[in-house]
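Colleagues,

Please find the record for the two-part complex below.
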Amino acid sequence: MFKFLSSVGQYFLFLKKVFSKPEKPSIYYKQTMSELVSLGLTSVGIVAIISFFMGAVITLQTAYNTENPIYPKYLIGLGCRDSMILEFSSTIAALILAGKVGSNIASEIGTMRVTEQIDALEIMGVNSASYLVLPKIIATVVFNPFLTLMSIVIGIFGGGIAGTFSGVMTPENFIYGIQYDFIPYYIVYSLIKTVFFAFIITSISSFQGYYVEGGSLEVGRASTKAVVYSSVMILLFNVILTQLLLS
Amino acid sequence: MIKVQNLSKSFNGKSVLNDISVTFETGKTNLIIGRSGSGKTVLLKSIVGLLEINSGEIWYENTLFNKLDFKDKKTIRSEMGMLFQGSALFDSLTVEQNVRFPLDMFTEQSAEEKNERVNFCLNRVDIKNANKLFPAELSGGMKKRVAIARAIALNPKYLFCDEPNSGLDPLTAILIDSLIKELTEEYAMTTIVNTHDMNSVMEIGEKIIFIHDGTKCWEGNNNEILISDCEILNDFVFANSLAKKLRQNTK
């Protein structure tokens, strides 16, 4: 328990260091641009592929579980839309990104720690936590909402394709379903969750990497911890934010 | 000048450095020697402020360094250059970008001036046609030289080297030693080198302190070290058979 509280305290002290005034904003700007590419753009492919197939599976499962004349066919499109917006594109995509981006960040910063690159930054008088982590946090918090929007669109498109080609419904039914009783606030809810999850993934993974002690084995352990802790915190905050934003 | 007074450091209650006092002189190559695990690296990292000390004082000229906060330490840190054991070059940057990094971070020079300084530093350490290479593409000796170029980019007053010769062949090791000595004299720096390499001790040891089990056991220079009465030091200095034979012949 004491160890847990000590780690939480250390995490907040780490955040204080991360959010201190940058030494040279122009350098941080360049770093942020580079992180937008390495953490954001490189995740487009995986998010697109998974979203397409998840949309397809959600559509088919909804169709096979509502094979009853009482249920109108357009409910399949509506189910796909709401599943993608409310849960998949924000939460499930965040869990996938925790695996990809989280382990990447923890191993990158962890390796810099064990090879004394972070010490080299400190010796130069650079606030290493801020220099290494702040651009990553800004990049993911800015870019992940776009990934979420893209995921929603591709997922619904995947659902439409799968539903149409499998013959479980007509394209007209699907299009009517995805337009039916649309609540724009759900998009806002999804994007707010995405921003929180992006912050959780980046800050927890950076924290795990930053305080690595030892060698390659410990860097590997830090990567695993980063993914596990980020995922647990995403699930916890999913419950809290859902209660706060939808109640 | 760097002055260390009554420095003690422990980890989880285990004492690593005990009451160390020493003055490192300007314009000289000061060596900290001792066996592996004796506390050399902890002493060096304490001096540069990477480790918090338990007690004692570290003075840079007239400034009590260990009592400064992060912001105030920055001023003195901008005058430091450090060569790490594993070079610690930034993997994601090229040789040129590594050397330019401190200039980008702490100067307002134009791109042209920075390029000029980068090329000057790389030429000074005899690195040619490697500007666009990444650290992974360099040999051990080249990495050390690039790390030295990065360390001197801002014309530091203090240069720290943690085992600069580890993993290098004897000839490259001598080249690195000579470079450190030349730069120390050229820029009138206070240089502190951590080493257990006796070749370095004899080549560049203008002032030497010997650490054993976290305690300073001996202080002198590379001439005095051969005629010391300190038994533990003699065990260290004359550890290999060649050195033992030489000593017998001298006697």
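The mean pLDDT of chain B is 89.

Comments are welcome before we finalize the supplementary table.
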